[in-house]
Amino acid sequence: MNYIAIKLQASQVQLVSKTGLPIAKAEWAVSLDNWHEKVLSLAEKINTFDWEFMGIAIDLSKEDLTDLDKSAMQTLSESVNCPLVLAADLASVANVEAYFKQVAAEQTWTLDYYGYTPGKSEYSVESLLTTGNGFIGLRGTLPEMEISEAHYPATYLAGLYNGAPSVIEGRTVINEDFVNSPNLQYLSLKIENQPVLEINEQSLTSLHRHLDLRTGVFTAEALVNSQGYQLKIITRRVVNMAAKDHYSLSYEVTPMNFSGKIKLIAKSDASVINFNTERYRSLTSEHLDITHLSAEGATTTVAVSTKQSKIQVIQHSELSGELLEHEVVNEISETEIVQTIAVEAKEGESYGIEKSVTVAYFFPEEASASADYLVSPTPAKTFETNRLESYQAWLGLWEKADISVTGDLMSQKLLRLHTYHLLVSGSPIANQALDVSITARGLHGEAYRGHIFWDEIFILPFYQLHFPEMAKQLLMYRYHRLGAAKENAKEAGYSGAMYPWQSGLDGTEQTQEVHLNPLSGEWGEDYSRLQRHVSLAIAYNVWNYWHNTGDRQFISQYGTEMLLEIAEFWRSKALWNEKLNRYSIPNVMGPDEFHEAYPNSQEGGVTDNAYTNMMVVWLFEEIATLLTELTTAELGELQIKTGITAEKLAEMQAIRQQLNLEINDEGIIAQYAGYFELKEVDWEYYREKFGNIYRMDRILKADGKSADDYQVAKQADTLMTFYNLAKAKVDDILTDLNYHLPADYLEKNLDYYLQRTSHGSTLSRIVHAQLAEMVGKRELSWQLYQEALRSDYQDIQGGTTAEGIHTGVMAATLMVTLQTYGGVDSRGELLSFAPDLPNTWQALRFCLTRFGVMYQVRLTTATIEVIANEDTSILIGQTLYDLTKNQPLKVSY
Ligand code: BGC
Fold first, then answer.
1. Residue 118 belongs to a domain
2. Which of 593, 596, 662, 803 is catalytic?
């Protein structure tokens, strides 16, 4: 196959198709000096070629490559979706095709950034380069970096929260924050008579950061120049995926143009604050009281206590490496420990140290364990031990979770990036010992304060299919907070369990009461807690877990209790409406957060949100089925635990058939009662005025208007029902409710709502991608899927990745890949497959687990191959196939 040779000349770029006939040639007027700026249009040009090519070779000299060249080469490669190599490297390889393939394969497992752009862009790179293991999350900063607007090192620990009061316009608001822990990662140096090395645009000559997704090892190679002294610094960082409390850094310094005294500096800094999210900076950001700082030889111990939640965090560090032959001088101040090692360094020689850290936290009731730990903390492991243990653990995780795509380099890379970050945010290994769930923004940043949202409905299926035991632990996080959810319901005047919209430490409602509109600079009421559908997401996840694992112990001990309490909440919330002659559910918000209330209403919430109501019907139906599957003894126990009577259960079944939806003559299901009376937005006008209109609510507010008055949506709302449930199931729900819609109602609803959706949440596009495929709009589906895949990698919201990755969309892209394109459906009795691979994909490979059976699946555009490790049956299309243990079944579809 051909490849494209790019020749950068003084006045033009020449593109030549090499190896193979005919040789095509295109010339393009752009001078050598500005090729970086023109790289996107160069890519556009290449993308119009109708030659098939396997890669690009560019004639730049390896020695002269700047960070800018490397970034531009990367952008070009990613924009044309094929590997790019240096012509000189290609000249020396025996098999050109194999070489391109190898470069492409490598590229799908790595993340590389060249250069340094302080501020939002750097913050976002750091989020994407985060290393972690489900307990610890370390942003991808350099160890010399300290908290500033330019860059933001942070150490996050899953489940570490602290409530803090802040005064806003004379009113005190309590926010429960996701706490940034003391920074034990700091390493830097001081050349004699020079200030301590700081990383900034002046001191950095070049920087390459590299993350190996397969092993979780972060590497940075920096060339720095401190007042003429040149040094090369190589940093490596690994958070041990196999042992949740451990991480290590290795730091190697080489003076490039001088010999002289260098002091290596290691700090254990407890003066840290929360500073990641700009709009929270005016709020209280100090969460820690320092309770202990000590150092002895190469070790330090730092203990802090969160001010309100009184969680004791203890971190212990050990320096190691050859330099430990030299004396370690320790200085302890009120907030930090500084360790220095002085060396006589020689030009061209390398000097390295390692810093390994162990981390633990203790709740107030664990005071005595905490005191013991402080005296003898877990000893650190060496960098190499952490790296090797972690590598093995990652291999095991990838074996189960990797999705492999043939024929599409970027989709493959981004699917791996998403899998990696989910496992950093929550891993089956660390989670065994934790009572946490997956936060909306991972262990990567502070947006949404590390809280747990309904995003679990997008996230859990990932764990469910690959690591069911982990899915169970995430559900147990909710079960342990069932009491708080019942209390929450009671306080609001309902019975049953009303889970909070934002959940943190103890399951109480953590949604802010006011929020800031960054466009208008004004604070306003926040009604988002009225998104009671979060309880339905939890119910859905419980059902999904049970339905795919058959975990009897879970469903009888915990799951059904949660389902019943959630159902009881909805029973108590549904009101009989005489006028409608139906039940109605008032005062809720759907997933579309732009609609908080009716126009000019002083009260938050809307009535009969279609998504909520349809999911309530679904829940009541599933409960009826589930109760028939339990034994009398199990039912008796549940009756005692929940107090839910037969009358209440009967009422649920009555509500299920008479809940209200508003549907127009065309078959459009109104997002909520009264939705059709809202005004239409002048999309053209706002698009022209603002360009990026994804936060249409804020734009309207700044314009003196309210999104409440308009038919505008942040994300899928009514349509979410079709993301959760098979279309046939939604049809049944509508029929049970005695609504009869036209055959093409899904297509009509998709068209209707897509025209009114600004995709203000990253969760939006991916849901619509699935729906578009369901109605046969393959191109639209692909476009939305691609945008969703790139949402964090390209920070498409223009700055939100800086505050953490978006775990919901990351997980959803993985699920949509399997469900929508792989055609996997695990919602029915039998696992079924109805693949429809995107045009560019030649093959798709993945594993999944259902009812304890592990399936390995390989799809091509025409065939499906499945191996199961037990005898079982599956559906391919409408046909039933029996699988024999470990025997591949291959069929054409
Ligand atoms: C979305 C919510 C989501 C939250 C946390 C918001 O922007 O609208 O649906 O739960 O982000 O990810």
1. no
2. 593
* 593 among known catalytic residues: yes
Specify the pLDDT at position 21: 44
Q: Judge whether 630 lies within some domain.
A: no
- Using CA positions, which residue lies closest to atom 7 of ligand 1? 761
Classify 636 as helix, strand or coil. helix
**pLDDT digit string (tens) for 70-129?**
999 999 999 999 999 998 998 899 998 999 999 999 999 999 999 999 999 999 999 999
Q: Which pLDDT belongs to residue 11?
A: 62
Q: Which of 107, 129, 160 is the last residue of a domain?
A: 107
Mutation choice for ligand 1 from 448, 761, 800, 810, CB with most ligand atoms inside 8 A: 761
70 & 217 share domain:
no
**Ligand 1: distance of its center to the CA of 761 in Å?**
6
Q: Which residues line ligand 1 (CB under 6 A)?
A: 440, 448, 453-455, 591, 593, 714-715, 761, 763, 808
Which of ligand 1's atoms lies nearest the C-alpha of 440? 12
pLDDT digits (tens, 9 = 90+) for 700-731: 988 889 999 999 999 999 999 999 999 999 99
Q: Please give the number of the atom of ligand 1 that sits closest to the Cα of 454.
A: 10
> Is 435 labelled as part of a ligand binding site?
no
Give a yes or no: residue 765 inside a domain: no
Query: Tell me, what CATH number does 289's domain have?
Result: 2.70.98.40
Query: In degrees rounded to 5, what are phi and psi of residue 122?
Result: -65, -45
In this structure, the residue with its CA closest to atom 8 of ligand 1 is 761
- The pick from 453, 765, 809 for probing ligand 1's pocket by mutation, whose C-beta has the most ligand atoms within 8 angstroms, reads 453
Domain boundary among 333, 367, 394: 394
State the residue range of the domain holding 259.
183-394
HEC string of 438-480 equals CCCCCCCCCHHHHCECCCHHHHHHHHHHHCHHHHHHHHHHHHC
How many structural domains is the chain composed of? 2
Residues 216 and 326 in one domain: yes
> How many angstroms separate the Cα of 785 from the Cα of each of 109, 440, 724?
20, 20, 17
